[in-house]
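Thread: "does anyone have the structure for this chain?"

Original post by V.I.:
We have the sequence but no experimental structure in hand. Need at least a predicted one for the grant figures.
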Amino acid sequence: MIETRKLESRHGDVVLEGFVSAEAGASPRPGVLIFPNFLGLDGSDEKVGERLAALGYVGFGCDLYGKGRRGTDRESGFALMTPFREDRAFLQERMAALLETARAQPEIDRDRIAAIGFCFGGLCVLDLARSGAVLRGVASFHGLLTPPDNIACPRITARVAVYHGWADASVPPEQVVALGEELSKAGCDWQAHAYGGAVHGFTHLGDPDTDIPHNRLAAERSWKSLEIFLAECFA
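Reply from O.Q.:
Generated one for you, tokens below.
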């Protein structure tokens, strides 16, 4: 049986509230950090955590904004996200704190941790890798790809997977090419998958407030690819 528990931690004066999803009674297993889209953690991320737990991992939901701070629409979500996009060094510090919190959880094998992220969360996991964090791998789903201004020449040790909608108006193809060049220079093992006709946020189910069209085929293909990627990371 899969159990999900809330988890509070701190970064500075801010109380963060994430979650841990794991098979009940299981010995320490590989952990997968989950970074949500710009609205912050919600029920869809807990479902991702449960899917990861069903695969034999531990899902660790990462709260960047603080307990009780969540976006409810595009405007409020952008208001929460923008300070982190404008201060990538601070974002990296908060993610490092969350990584250490994950390592301290009894369900998680502290030496076998990866991270996945969606949209803004995709930017987060790429920045976590760029920062030199010790991770087995990171995977970005329809993530933002622009590099931070505080890490000129990253040396990335984690494996990197990028799942991208080719029709993403927010992230045009030239940014995917630029990321490939950056990752090659960083010396890491990387892969990028592009899905024709898929737009930004293609894994999300229909949401009338954001009007993001769900692409079932791209969502299924990218998740299956993630399963293979995680198996490689934790082999």
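V.I.: this helps a lot. The mean pLDDT is 95.
O.Q.: and The longest strand covers residues 108-118.
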